[in-house]
Amino acid sequence: MTDVALDHRETGARALPGWRIAAIVIAAIAVAFAIAWIVPGGEDYPSAAIIPFAEWIGAIMQWIKVTFTWLTRGLADIINIPLQLALGFLAKGYKIGWGESTVTLPRFSWVGVCAVAGLIGYRFGGMRLALLSGLSFLAIALFRQWDSAMLTLALILVCVPICVATGLLIGIWGYLSPSVNRLVITPMLDLMQTIPTFAYLIPMLLLFGNSPVSALLATGLFATPPMVRATVLGLSKVPQDIKDFADMAGCTRRQKLWRVLVPSAKPSLMLGVNQVIMLALNMVIISSMIGAGGLGYDVLLALRALKVGQAMEAGLAIVILAIVLDRVSQAAALQKPEQEAAALPWHQRHFNLIAILALLIGTTLVALALPAFAKVPTEITLTTAPAWKAAVDWVTVNYFDIIEVMRTSFLIYVLNPLRAFFEGLPWLGVALLLGFAGYRLGALPLAIIVALLASFCAVTGLWVQTMATLYLCGAAAFIAALIGIPIGLWASRSKRVESIVTPVIDTLQTIPSFCFIIPVVMLFRVGDVTALIATVAFAIVPAIRYTNHGIRQVPHELIEAGIAAGCTKRQLFWRVQLPVALPEIMLGINQTILLSLSMIVICAMIGTRDLGQEVFKALSKADAGKGIVAGLAIAFIGIIADRLITAWVDRMKARRGLA
Amino acid sequence: MERVFDTERFAMTDIKRPVKLSCRNLWKVFGPNAEGVMREHKGDAPAEALARAKLIGAVRRASIDVHEGEIFIVMGLSGSGKSTLLRCLSRLIEPTYGEVRFDGRDLLKASEAELIEIRRHKMGMVFQHFALLPHLTVLENVGFPLSVQGVPKAQQTKRARAMVDLVGLKGREHHYPRELSGGQQQRVGIARSLAVEPEIWFLDEPFSALDPLIRREMQSELMRLQNVLKKTIVFITHDFDEAIRLADRIAIMKDGEIIQIGAPEELVLNPATDYVAEFTRDVNRAKVMSAASLMTRGKTSAKHAGTVTAKAKVEAFAADIVAAREPFAVTDAGGKLVGEIAPQAVIDLLAGRRSGKAAPT
Q1: Calculated CA dihedral for residues A492, A493, A496, A502, nearest 10 degrees
Q2: Is residue A286 part of a domain?
Q3: In terms of CA atoms, which chain B residue is nearest residue A263?
Q4: CA distance B146 to chain A (A)
Q5: Which residues of A touch B140 (CB under 8 A)?
Q6: Residue of B91, B137, B156 best to disrupt the A interface, most CBs of A under 10 A
Q7: Which of A252, A260, A336 sits opposite B116 (nearest CB)?
Q8: Of the candidates B80, B345, B75, B121, the residue with the CA atom closest to the CA atom of residue B234
Q9: Which one, out of A52, A576, B82, B157, has a CA that is 20 to 30 A from the CA of B13?
């Protein structure tokens, strides 16, 4: 609604004074409400008319399960091979042979794995990264998280190559046939990236049971989209000259693709790989609910038993793993070939590979004689769990009243009325208003899509839950923007602030969503307030980043022109920098909304009452139909917000000649 | 006085050499159903017809003949269609209408496999932004066209090394493109395009992305290479000075059409339109014009202070003839006397008077 109002003012084409536009908007809302009241069933969707999508999808899933058992079994068996190999070498020890003659190869020694982590860090980022990487692994070992961490790592190591290969192939397909890309691949990716993580788990659980394989597949589905996007984008960005050169050199199509295009696009492909790794980690943690095991499972168990210390420890191990994987894969992505390397003999070029194998095998052999190498000796480990628990206890004892008062009053005076307002909105009125906004910002197709998606949430009987989600997500995104934009502005005006803010938000962005809940739950227990705080912390990053970037990329000439025109500092900011940076800032808000949505859904674990909860309940009952429908409803909220904001930004950019 | 400016009299050395590459009534029209509209007008669509069909004619009714061993330059400002024309000639993009012949063979009828064969063995191309592969070293980049043909590795390396030496990059074989300066990168591009010993060499604004000083150096380098290699060259540029410096013949393009084709001095002396005249106005004529264009044919006086060949540029002998105050004899390539040149004609030229048109006696 505000979008529309702002938009009117922005166009200024009709030169209407502000108050008349406001009157038009209010009138539109009133009309929408009136329609909702007049049309029967316009306010509360009649339960008799609910279309049973959930039952249909459930039936289809059941049919697939029964009919394609052979396929799912086969797929599971195939995926199990590399999975068991990785799990065996990193976590459990690898069994060869059956029955009597079984030989168990020992897993790699933790000493060797730490050393290899350091070596890989050194290869890509020099001594600093070597220390970060090696010491982080050592810390995981010393804080008693080794076994779980290796389980998680093994899953990621198997999953990432599969995702990268699949993503690359789909991306190439999309690049080669733009119509397929536009009509099939892009909409699919949009949907896949807005469907909440939990919703992926349900069909996998149904088809593949509670096992690492289904966790792996769910992770793969979730983590592949960015690779597809990076591939399409990277290949399209290869300069036309290079594409022409490939033709002129007489490359066949295959040669052009694999010897020219893909290698030339390598930098963007590697950034895609980095994103795949981070999403895979995120999802492996969440899919511990369907049998992934590892660190995520530890957190889950500890949270369920309210063992604050253990949850925190495992959560920290996840964060450490995430930071190492992120930094190393980013350094690898930025790696550039150096001269002369190509002229070296084989064993010198592959020195690192040989060293890694030697380290792993050597330390593992030592471990056969020296038990301290096989298993982290308990004498040198330590646990921080009691310390965390003591800290939380101390806070609870001393500040329980204050925290509780803050929490309750926020809940009673702000959140609950807001929730009541949202839940009372008539579905027809909202759908029509969204459609109107879509029409104003884009064109008729956008209006129809937006209105239809909104109606879907009502006709499936999930309107109240949808509005509950919208309320939490909206509140979180609003607060995140309220805090994030000023921080971004501040950072944009001072190098020093930026140099402090950037590493903080980089780290925040690396941390898997799951981990944000842990510390907040300790202090605020379960409920909407906790969900809100965790979501704000998770979703604030793009608001800060895009604001900072948007202001900083305002062309210097414009600022000089402003100064030359005699602007004060304040005028310069409000009349030059902010208007020019606005499209970029809006894109940040868009990201913040999408991140809020994904986090709100995960917060179903701590007792929110919205669509996320529907998905969560469906997961515990393995009810595919309900879970998928609720998941789609969440995705549609995201898509509506994304489409409207993008359309608005495009208009803004077009008007400013930036698009 | 007899002063006829027919094409044959100019540097147009050896127009009788066989035609290597030619196109006839070539069109590239962008927009919906461009082929249909072109067929409807039987290959001669007036500008209004294109505009009515919402089509953009990037190249219109282009006809050129490129002779063996000649440097043929297509000159035009950005958006004039010169790059599009080049890409139609090499079939990097499909022309909408017309004919392209390479060695007398219809290039537009070649299948994809045939086209790949032709490009692998007979065509080389240099790109404005170098188009080097970032993941390959200098040596690997130069060897790449051979590598895609499946030439054995040892032979590839040998040939690539020879080419790298030829362009003066010896010692940088194992550098990656980003470790080289712009001029060096384009040398790699040149070496690479020569690796397959092409019969025709396309250069698409090869020096436009370089600094002026480096650009002059590279132009000299190109002349040096051409003296050794004698390739048939189609060279695209937007820089008229570059064109007259390098060209045997120049085609000037405007709005998709070729408005004049001729040797540099012909363009300077007889610009077909005001547009061409605009380009040639500030050109240093002494550098462009040859003795042939200033001489009086046949009629010779008894006494000559010196002798020049018909192809010699005025710049080369201007100081001598002005100092001598006597006519010079002009001879053809075989040393046969063809005419004489008066000092006054040179002085007029240097003074910027429209010499040639109305030289005083």
Answers
A1: -10
A2: yes
A3: B135
A4: 8
A5: 342
A6: B137
A7: A252
A8: B75
A9: B82
What is the domain-level CATH number for residue A623?
Answer: 1.10.3720.10
Q: Do B117 and A250 touch (CB under 8 A)?
A: yes
How many angstroms away from the CA of A245 is the closest CA of chain B? 7
Confidence band (pLDDT; 50, 70, 90) for B12?
very low
pLDDT in tens, A27-63: 766 776 777 677 766 667 777 777 888 888 888 888 8
Residues A626 and A564 in one domain: yes
Residues on chain A touching B202 (C-beta within 8 angstroms): 248
- Clarify whether residues A134 and A224 are in a common domain: no
- Among A242, A248, A342, the residue with its CB nearest the CB of B119 is A248
Residues from A in contact with B at Cβ < 8 Å: 239, 241-242, 244-245, 247-252, 255, 259-260, 263-264, 266, 336-343
With contact defined as beta carbons under 8 Å apart, do B157 and A270 qualify?
no
Residue of B nearest to A255 (CA): B148
For residue B5, which of B308, B352, B292 has the smallest C-alpha distance? B292
Question: Is residue A285 located within the same domain as residue A371?
Answer: no
> In whole angstroms, how far apart are CA A337 and each of A166, A241, A271, A333, A334?
26, 22, 16, 11, 10
Residue B123: φ, ψ to 5°: -120, 145
CA–CA gap between residue A182 and residue B286 (Å, rounded): 59
Is the separation of the CB atoms in B85 and B73 below 8 Å? no
Boundary (domain end) residue, out of A336, A366, A398 = A336
pLDDT in tens, A570-620: 888 888 888 888 888 998 999 999 999 988 888 888 878 888 888 888 888
Residue A484 placed within a domain: yes
The span from the CA of B44 to the CA of B61, in Å, is: 7
Closest-CA residue to A596 (of A491, A477, A469, A498): A477
Answer whether B174 sits within 8 Å of A241, measured CB to CB: no
Total domain count, chain A: 3
CB contact under 8 A, B127 and A245: yes
**Whole-model pTM?**
0.81
The answer to whether residue A490 sits within a structural domain is: yes
**Which architecture, in CATH terms, is B286-351?**
Alpha-Beta Complex (3.90)
Q: Which residues of B touch A338 (CB under 8 A)?
A: 176
CB contact under 8 A, B125 and A251: no
Which range of residues forms the domain containing residue A347? 107-142+338-377
Q: Give the residue carrying structure tokens 């389980």.
A: A151
- The CATH H-level (homologous superfamily) assignment of domain B7-20+66-280 is P-loop containing nucleotide triphosphate hydrolases (3.40.50.300)
User: pLDDT tens digits for B295-307?
Assistant: 888 766 667 888 8
What was the ipTM of the complex prediction? 0.81
The token duo for B76 is 């035009």
Would you state the structure tokens that stand for residue A565, as one six-digit string? 């025109």
Residue of B nearest to A246 (CA): B145
pLDDT tens per residue, range A298-307:
888 888 787 8
Domain spans of chain B, in order of start: 7-20+66-280, 286-351
Residues A520 and A546 in one domain: yes
Are residues B124 and A248, on separate chains, in Cβ contact within 8 Å? yes
How many Cβ atoms from other residues are within 10 Å of residue A617's Cβ? Answer: 14
For B68, residues 6+ apart whose C-beta sits below 8 A from its C-beta are B17, B18, B19, B20, B232
Six token digits for residue A388: 């965390």
Residue at A594 is within a domain: yes
**CB-nearest partner of A241 from B127, B140, B145:** B127
CA distance B20 to B104: 7
Residue matched to tokens 């795949």? A276
Residue A301 — φ and ψ, nearest 5°?
-60, -45
Residue numbers in A near B178 (CB within 8 A): 336
Q: Are A629 and A484 in contact (CB under 8 A)?
A: no
Please judge whether B119 and A249 are an interchain contact, meaning their C-beta atoms are less than 8 angstroms apart: yes
